[in-house]
Amino acid sequence: MFENFPSGLKLISDYYVSVGKQGVDKLVEGDQRTPLGVYFITDRIDPKALEDRFGAGALPLNYPNAYDKFRGRTGSGILVHGVPSNTYSRPLGQRWLHCLVQ
Fold it and tell me: Which tens digits make up the pLDDT trace of 28-68?
């Protein structure tokens, strides 16, 4: 995670993440890839409205953003979310559809 300062970006912290089943660089809806880019959180989904596989909550992202659309990229439903309640963390190397952060 970076914070923007007048002098430039500063690394604040880093986290283990999982990406889509087919890796990164999302091109089209359904390709099971995680987008690479700068995205903003657009909402917060109440945990009560989610399946357990999303963990304690989910934050939708503004994918595709204007640049993605300009490049012809499509898709929707990209979320930052947790892991199932019976899972502390996902095993290294295991990929999950649309999972960005744990």
Answer: 999 999 999 889 999 999 888 999 888 888 999 999 999 99
Beta partners for 23? 20
Q: Which pLDDT score is estimated for 89?
A: 61
SS3 content of the chain, % helix, strand, coil (to 5): 10, 20, 70
Cα–Cα distances (Å) from 71 to 9, 26, 81, 94, 100, in that order, read 26, 11, 26, 29, 22
The structure's pTM equals 0.71
Residue 15: pLDDT band with limits 50, 70, 90: confident
Of 37, 101, 49, give the one whose Cα is nearest residue 75: 37
